[in-house]
Amino acid sequence: MTHTHRDHPDFEALRPQAVALRRAGLSRRQICEHLGALSDGTLSHLLEGEPPPKWTKRPNAKDNLRDKARELRKQGRTYDEIVAELGVAKSSVSLWVRDLPKPRKSPEAMHQMREARWAPYRAARDRAIEETKTEAFSEIGQLTDRDLFLIGVSLYWSEGSKSKPYQRRERVIFVNSDPGMIKVFMAWLALLDVEPEHLRFCVMIHESADVEGAERYWADLVGINVSSLCKTVLKKHNPKTVRKNVGDEYHGCFVVRVLQCADLYRRIEGWWSGIVTGASAPTATSGSGMV
C-alpha cells in the first residue's frame, strides 16, 4: 500500500501550527525547528497553499534596473536613451515601460533635433557663400580715383539727402548705419578735397541702446574725438515695437553733414545725371564684363 505525506500521524495537528508559523514570516528551516524534524515532502504538504514570505524570495537582479527604466521613461527619455544609460537590451526596456505613455518632446528638444538635422546643409551653404564672397572680393582689386569718384556719386544719390522740386534744399547730408558705407563716403569726400573743418558729425540712436558706446564707436571709425560730435539724436523707445537692431552690434546711425555745400550738391546732381546718361548709351563692349 502506498503511503502519502498526509499519513503522518500528527498531520492534522501540525498543519495549523505550520500555517501559523508561515504566516508569521518564518522560513521552512525555522518551522522545522519549532515543529521537530520533518521530511521536505511532509513540510511542503503542511504548507500547501501558503506563499513564502517576501524576505525568503531570491531578489530579481533586474528589478532595480526596471525601476530606473520606468523613472527615466517618466522623465521623457526615449528607448535609445534608456538603453544607453542602463546598458540593457532594448527589448527589456520595451517590456518594462510599454504601459507608460509615450513622452512628448519639448519645443526645445524639437528645435535641437531640427538644428542637428539641418546643420550639415547649413555648413555646406555657408562654405559656398564664403567661397563666392572671397572670389568676388578678389575681382575688385585696387580702386582708381575715378572708380572711387563714380562709386561715391552713386552712393550719395542712393543714401544721401536730396533736394525736392517743391522744396529746394542744396544740402549734403549722408546718414547710414553701415560702417563700410561711412568709410567709403569719407574716402570720397577726401578725394573731392572737402576740408575736415567743413564736416559735422552726430549719432542717431534709440534711447534704450548703449548711447555712449555708440558715440565712441563712430568717433573711432572716422578718427575724431567723441567731444567733436554734435549732440546725439535720441529716438524714443517704443516697447510695443519688436526691433531686430539690438545687442552689442547695434550702434545706431551716423550722420555726416558738409557745411557750405551748395556748389558741391549741384555738382553731385550733375555727376549723377552724367552717370545715368552714360549707362544708357550703347557701347561697343555692351554685354561683356565681370558678370
Question: Can you tell me about this structure?
Answer:
It is a single chain. With 291 residues, the protein is an alpha+beta fold. It has four domains: 52 residues; 35 residues; 37 residues; 136 residues, no CATH class. The protein is 51% helix and 8% strand. The chain is built from eleven helices and four strands. It has a four-stranded mixed sheet with strand order 1-4-2-3.
Beta strands, count:
4
**Beta-strand content:** 5-15%
Biggest β-sheet strands, sense, barrel: 4 strands, mixed
Low-confidence spans: pLDDT under 50, at least 5 residues?
none
How many helical stretches? 11
Radius of gyration: 44 Å
- Secondary structure class reads alpha+beta
Note the overall shape. rod-shaped
Tell me the distance between the termini.
114 Å
Helical amount among residues, as a percent range?
A: 40-55%
Order of helices and strands: HHHHHHHHEHEHEEH
Mean pLDDT: 86
Whole-number count of domains = 4
The strands making up the biggest β-sheet line up spatially as 1-4-2-3
How is this fold's topology laid out?
Blueprint (H helix, E strand, L loop, with lengths): L10 H13 L4 H8 L4 H7 L16 H12 L4 H8 L3 H8 L9 H34 L4 H15 L12 E5 L2 H13 L7 E8 L4 H12 L10 E3 L17 E6 L3 H19 L11
Parallel strand pairs: 2-3
Antiparallel strand pairs: 1-4, 2-4
Provide a concise account of the structure shown.
The chain contains eleven helices and four strands; from the N terminus they run ααααααααβαβαββα. With 291 residues, it is an alpha+beta fold.
